Amino acid sequence: MARQAPELDYAKWLARWDKQQESFNPNRERRFDAMFDVLEAWLPRRFTALDLGCGPGSLSARLLRRFPAARVVAVDFDPVVLRIGQGALRGLRDRITWIDADLGARGWTTQLRTRHFDAGLSTTALHWLSPVRLRRLYYDIGELLRAGGVFLNGDILPWEAKRRNLRRLVEGIRRHRFGGKSLQAEWAPWRRWWRDLEKESALKAEFRERKSRFSKPHGASDLIPLDFHERALRRAGFRDVEVVWQELEDRILLAVR
Ligand SMILES: C[S@@+](CC[C@H](N)C(=O)[O-])C[C@H]1O[C@@H](n2cnc3c(N)ncnc32)[C@H](O)[C@@H]1O
Fold it and tell me: What is the CATH number assigned to the segment(s) 22-256?
């Protein structure tokens, strides 16, 4: 008789995800909290939010815990993290909808069952998109949010390259904090998470699909500067566009529809 593969320990993989993300972003929890403080001040108790580039659902899980009447639509294009999230957050099933979609592709919003959101949020994700795709995504988000709705992007949003003194300052502090380690070394826990997870035979099909979707790695050198985001959001019809929290270049950019 064929033996069934053991069920994946989804909660463990999500906890390990959080740990590796925190290793290179020690302010991660404070940044989540700061985003939720904005939602609390801005929105009614009952609201629907989009989590863009949700990964295995860290932001969505925290949001649903803090706002018991809220609902989330969580979007990602990576079948591996989607499966981890769906498994780990099974208990929240009736409040979270998972969407497998490429945020950089035209027409991705047609996969959504509702097109009326109070908030859009994203953490450590939109830096994967090229400037052209990011600009288009901001238009898409603008169309999905109701008037008065808010968009919050928590990510490394660097100063422009020509502001060399500020870039040098940030780099100096970063090196000091991480004991002089290179950026590559900072990412070691992230790489280890992926390497270990790939050994799970239950995820073979998802890994195969992931590889076909994400052929090109992205790097920190491609990060799009803050002022590009601000301009693109204003052009997409957002009115107030302001940084509402920051720690060096790790910021939350708020945009009001
Ligand atoms: C570093 S993870 C962050 C995940 C989560 N927001 C968090 O804070 O833990 C970046 C996520 O963006 C997703 N992503 C990258 N490009 C994407 C795209 N074009 N469409 C949808 N998701 C994308 C990746 O699959 C990944 O899950």
Answer: 3.40.50.150
